[in-house]
Each structure stands twice: as structure tokens, then as C-alpha cells.
Amino acid sequence: MPDSVTSAIIRSGVVAVLRAPSADAFAAVADVLVGAGVTAIEVTLTSRGAMDALAGLRRQLPPSAVVGAGTVLTPDDAKAARDAGAAFLVSPVADRLAQMIEAAGDVPFYPGAFTPTEMLTAHRAAAPLVKLFPAGGLGPAYLKDLRGPLPDLRVMPTGGVEIADIAAWLQAGASAVGLGGPLLQDAARGGSLTELAERARRAVDAVAYARS
């Protein structure tokens, strides 16, 4: 069975990937997302002020929301994000797996992988979720074919996943999907929060449809 954080992400079905030049608007964006039903939030460390934003979101959002860190590339990144209160850690790569998992401690670490060998390696290293990245150019059929011989993989496609693709990915066997640009668009740079809420509701509806 997955841990409680991973289970919460799987229940959400969507992880909102917050990436922008600055994290200044992440508090307002996260409020809208959680209000619309997207309860898993990933703050990418490439955004200026990400660590402060991460710590702030942990205080701001309700207990039903899980807030983690993304673009975690080094053990030092993992330790800093954990100290800031990250509930989970996500990387685009599966580099130095043993060191990264050790640095994450009791915080779930989700490495990125692209090939079957990379994904199986991450799974055997006890990653509770493997981030399929970048997923958009592969499509749901890739995951369906992959999970034929590797049915125990828990996979989170991210990168190039559109809102319209959510149901197809979940029906192909994804545990959840990561959505960045297609969900946020310009909301973290002064864009419409009303339109963000509508996109988030469409994403939540897609999850419900896929699982009905």
C-alpha cells in the first residue's frame, strides 16, 4: 500500500505544478486550485522564492491539501525542501537515487523516468510513484503498453499533459497526472484566477469521469 501522502495524491488524480519566474502569486493560485478540488500542489524550486512559498502554503492551505517540492535535483535540494515542510519531493530525473531517497528521509520521493528500464529501476528503489517525464510526446498508449509487463508500477505522467488528456492517461493506468502550463497558463504571472478555477474544475471533472 502507498503511504498516506502518495494516497492523497492518487485520490486527487492531479498534481498542480506551480512554475513561474517568481513564486509571489503562488499563495493566491494555490487557494483557487484547492478551492476547485485540486488538492495536490507542487512548488518547483526553479521559481524564485520557492522555499518561502512552500513553507507558506503548508501553513495557509487546509490539512486536506498536500504540498510538495518539484525540480528537486540534488540531495541538498531534498534536505532544504524537507526542512521547508515539503510533504513530497519530485525530480525530473532518476539521478543518484540512493542518495536522493536517503536525503528525503521519511518524505516520499518521486523520481522522473522515461524508459521502461529507468522506471523499473526507480520502482525497485522503492519510489512510491514514478514521474513519467516528459510524457506529452509519448501519449497514453505508451503507458498502457508499459504496464502490460510491469503492472505494479505507479506512474504519474507529467510534461505536455493537457487537461483534455487526463481521462485517457488515467484509463491507461496512470495513478495521477502532473499538470503545469496547461492548467496554470498565466495565472501565476497576473492572469485570470477565475479562468484558472474553471480549468481546475475541468481537470477534477476529468478525473471523476475516468474513474466512474
From TrEMBL:
Q: How does it assemble?
A: Homotrimer.
Q: Does the keyword Mitochondrion apply?
A: no
Q: What is the lineage of its organism?
A: Bacteria, Bacillati, Actinomycetota, Actinomycetes, Micromonosporales
Q: Which SUPFAM superfamilies match?
A: Aldolase
Q: Which organism is it from?
A: Mangrovihabitans endophyticus
Q: Which family does it belong to?
A: Belongs to the KHG/KDPG aldolase family.
Specify the protein name.
2-keto-3-deoxy-phosphogluconate aldolase
Matching entries from PANTHER family are given as:
2-DEHYDRO-3-DEOXY-6-PHOSPHOGALACTONATE ALDOLASE-RELATED, 2-KETO-3-DEOXY-6-PHOSPHOGLUCONATE ALDOLASE
Give the highest taxon in the source lineage: Bacteria
